[in-house]
Automatic annotation (TrEMBL):
Domain Calcineurin-like phosphoesterase: 1-218
Function: SbcCD cleaves DNA hairpin structures. These structures can inhibit DNA replication and are intermediates in certain DNA recombination reactions. The complex acts as a 3'->5' double strand exonuclease that can open hairpins. It also has a 5' single-strand endonuclease activity.
UniProt keyword terms in alphabetical order: DNA recombination, DNA replication, Endonuclease, Exonuclease, Hydrolase, Nuclease
Gene: sbcD
Protein family membership: Belongs to the SbcD family.
Protein name in the entry: Nuclease SbcCD subunit D
GO biological process: DNA recombination; DNA replication
Quaternary organization: Heterodimer of SbcC and SbcD.
Residues covered by the Nuclease SbcCD subunit D C-terminal domain: 267-355
Transmembrane segments: none
Amino acid sequence: MRLLHTSDWHLGRAFHRVNMLGAQAEFIGHLVTTVRERSVDAVVVSGDVYDRAVPPLAAVELFDDALHRLAALGVPTVMISGNHDSARRLGVGAGLIGRAGIHLRTEPSAAGTPVVLADDDGEVAFYGLPYLEPALVKDEFGVEKAGHEAVLAAAMDRVRADLAARPAGTRSVVLAHAFVTGGEPSDSERDITVGGVASVPAGVFDGVDYVALGHLHGCQTLTDRVRYSGSPLPYSFSEAAHRKSMWLVDLAADGSVAAERVDCPVPRALARIRGTLDDLLGDPGLTRHEEAWVEATLTDPVRPADPMARLTARFPHTLSLVFDPDRDEDESEVSYARRLAGRSDQEIAEDFVAHVRGAGPDPHEQGVLRDAFDAVRADETVREVAR
């Protein structure tokens, strides 16, 4: 069976205020063409179809168009909700839509109930594990403490139990939206940290033939059977080195996997350039970036006059301007933003405690801080789902 694995469409999202709806529509056209021309048997979409719980109307219309075009091909599609989606909204009408071959899996309780498709080699069971917010699903899965690894492990126990009851030789595919250990994140994924731990080990998914992951925006292979497709379009300059693509996966009769990357069309290349303003304007080696979307980091010791206007004269698609002046190593004055860069909420809070009283929090106090951050994140998720 030939699968096309994609995820993280983020319909409705902009790129540094640039409307991406046209590029997203071009991707949907590319997806449909790939399905038709490469004889795809099933499409899997591993979450974050939309960029937010209540997407703009234009994004909903594009999604509706995608569903109609996929259904018209007669190729089954299985998709799950991600942490950016409203599972309830995305799942509206799932039973009816399923009759057209579009199978939406947004309910955690259905983790062990697969969509079963068949080819000449027999049946393939597709298990959809939507994004599982630990605080909201721990009771459903009977775990004592909310955590990503615990709830995913419990969901996979249901998958393996169902698979064990099926005829020998039944192949299996799991769709999941999670941060799996070994994956390389970018700046454009929403933080899903709970209990100080965001990632889960790939071993959680042992026992199935292929795991189609969503959440991280870079296409990557964790094992031959566990892969991220990545987002089809860039959503932050941290993705400048990404090759945007989908996975074309051939699942053989014995469950072995062969995978090929299918490139996605992107509207412009991304470029991150760094140096003094005069150097950036005069460097002939930067000519290749003149039509790219540019993030420019200026290292001038003193902020130059009209830097954006001067940059856009050469790089008309400059979208981000960052100031990072070169300073002596012993210079003590560092900007507040730079002191916080790359630090988690937990680390910032612990540093604040140490600054105020002269000593950092003890293990018990660290736990109190962690529980407080978890409660805030869970409350934000509940409010977003309820919107």
